[in-house]
């Protein structure tokens, strides 16, 4: 019977794929068995999903075959959905089998956070996967197709986006860019279309300097977006949304981007959580479980000021590299590395030719920020797939 340690990675998102790639690079032959579990055969670029959702880019530019990213002689890819995590038994229950492990890396990704708003889970769509954005895109096109077939159907061309963080702002920007083309295709007067971006907080794009937030909102207002800031959605219904002010907005399309929480399977596993996220230790362990690591959306890590880092692709990637190094160090009985996040900057797209960015103390906006966004995206493609992937999936125009 083999005594080779078994490493199981759950999820092939930004953190999971970087963990897998670093493990296959650092582990020696026959030093460990590594299994990567993912429900799909592809890795998708979460930070790109707002574009195919709005219809401004192809879904094919958003997903990458996992077999092109890993060495399947070194890593066993299992296409399956995780049903249950049993840390006491060191087992993972899949929809079609069971895996045992010696070391577990949980990188499952988060879930939409509804904050208890009635009707949101039932009636709002969310940008969370390839299938969900395909649904949103087809749904938007259907509303335009139906508009002229129904009398007094203004709700067909009213679009509500809940949340003005990264996802919300980037999605309304792409949607605003798509609307004129849809109006031309379906013979709809563009002045009749309404895009509402609703945010309970007093400002959009938290973490950005006020001047960049003002610039972003001005750009989107000129594109036709109506902002309702400092106003919470009280209820989501089949007819639209009811706001805390008492105002009702009738809309056949409600897209929720108002936040994510951790994966509920982590709570069910018995780990101590805060909104589904585990406060991991400095080496990314689950407290009390030296053989279980959590990275990405499900890991709760605090910055020096005592605030939790937002779950971004950037931090998940850095966690993935650190996690792999610590798993290898654990196998070799070496000292583990302390995870320290290095913020390399933040960029938000505002649609074609527009963006805002913070790089260190430097603030950027407009065309230069939009080009930086492309550079950041292509840098990630190069990291996971080299120049071949950049040429295949990169956005150069």
UniProtKB/TrEMBL annotation:
Keywords: FAD, Flavoprotein, Oxidoreductase. Gene3D superfamilies: 3.50.50.100. One of its GO terms (biological process) is aerobic electron transport chain. Its cofactor is FAD. It comes from the Bacteria. One of its GO terms (molecular function) is NAD(P)H dehydrogenase (quinone) activity. InterPro entries: FAD/NAD-bd_sf, FAD/NAD-binding_dom, NADH-Q_oxidoreductase. Residues 6-320 form the FAD/NAD(P)-binding domain. Belongs to the NADH dehydrogenase family. This is NADH dehydrogenase. It comes from Paenibacillus antarcticus. The lineage of its organism: Bacteria, Bacillati, Bacillota, Bacilli, Bacillales.
